[in-house]
From TrEMBL:
This is Transketolase. Its cofactor is thiamine diphosphate. Residues 11-268 form the Transketolase N-terminal domain. It comes from Candidatus Cryptobacteroides gallistercoris. Keywords: Thiamine pyrophosphate. CDD domains: TPP_TK. It holds the Pfam family Transketolase_N.
């Protein structure tokens, strides 16, 4: 289990990976990847019970994670590689012809760590619910985690899934929303008026928690509270308040880097603001 200082060091390296991957590919989604980096680092290096050496897509006798917001693949791949699922140098193949590291996670080439193909927004939460129900049928006491985007919450399937999970008391599911208030077309409230997500999820019958997505103490506390709330008849949603592009000043707080790669000069400026802690690939 990593300490807070270790998590900060890993997170800095993960953000470097994200910047270098999307720059190298000249495409990708750095903004949301940067905003959710701290959570995924905490999840894989401190919170989840998982073992890369024995992992299978079924995740039997392990916790499972599904990235519903599949365009956040850069942070997902970096965290998987840095936690031992596949070699770190493979990050350099991101979005290249023939790579296992496609723009959105895919299972067609058996990339270790990826449970579910994702990218069509709204679908990953439903898949996570199905996996959580399967664990209950197998008497597997482990948890299923899912990460959704706040813009993704404009998808109708998210709310169908929300109703289903509450109705069927899927209480081994911990979902997390990256609440950075930005999406590709602008501020989420300007695009579709998502508004305050807490009363919405509560109205659908979920246990709702909140955390600061860039404070590891807050993230770890929320995850502990979420585990404590499981097994009581309700699925759990953690609303994680974040800043899109967190870690790089010219990317921070704007939707302009939702799906845009830096050029080489911008990449170097970004890297100068992020400490290399584990060694670049």
């Amino acid at each position: 289990m990593a300490s807070i200082d270790e998590l900060k060091r890993i997170s800095s390296q993960v953000r470097r990976d994200i910047i270098r991957m999307v720059t190298g590919a000249k495409s990708g989604h750095p903004g949301g990847s940067m905003s959710s980096a701290d959570f995924l680092v905490a999840l894989y290096f401190n919170v989840m019970d998982h073992d890369p050496a024995s992992w299978t897509r079924e995740c039997r006798n392990q916790d499972a994670f599904i990235l519903s917001a599949g365009h956040l693949s850069p942070v997902y791949y970096s965290v998987l590689a840095r936690s031992g699922y596949f070699p770190v140098p493979e990050l350099g193949t991101f979005r290249k012809l023939g790579t296992r590291l496609q723009g959105h996670p895919s299972v067609d080439r058996d990339l270790p760590g990826v449970v579910q193909t994702s990218g069509s927004l709204g679908q990953g939460l439903s898949a996570a619910i199905g996996m959580a129900m399967g664990k209950k049928l197998d008497n597997d006491p482990h948890y299923v985690y899912a990460l959704v985007g706040d813009g993704e919450c404009e998808e109708g399937q998210i709310w169908e899934a929300a109703m289903f999970a509450a109705h069927h008391r899927v209480d081994n599911l911990i979902a997390v929303t990256d609440w950075n208030r930005q999406q590709i077309d602008g501020n989420i409230d300007d695009v579709a008026g998502v508004g305050d997500l807490r009363p919405k999820w509560e109205a659908f019958g979920w246990e709702v928690l909140e955390c600061d997505g860039h404070d590891f103490n807050s993230i770890l506390s929320a995850c502990a509270d979420a585990k404590a709330a499981c097994g009581k008849g309700r699925p759990v949603m953690i609303l994680m308040k974040t800043v899109m592009g967190e870690g790089v000043d010219f990317m921070s707080g704007t939707n302009q880097w939702h799906g845009k790669a830096p050029n080489q000069e911008q990449c170097q400026v970004a890297l100068s603001q992020l400490e290399e802690t584990l060694g670049d690939y």
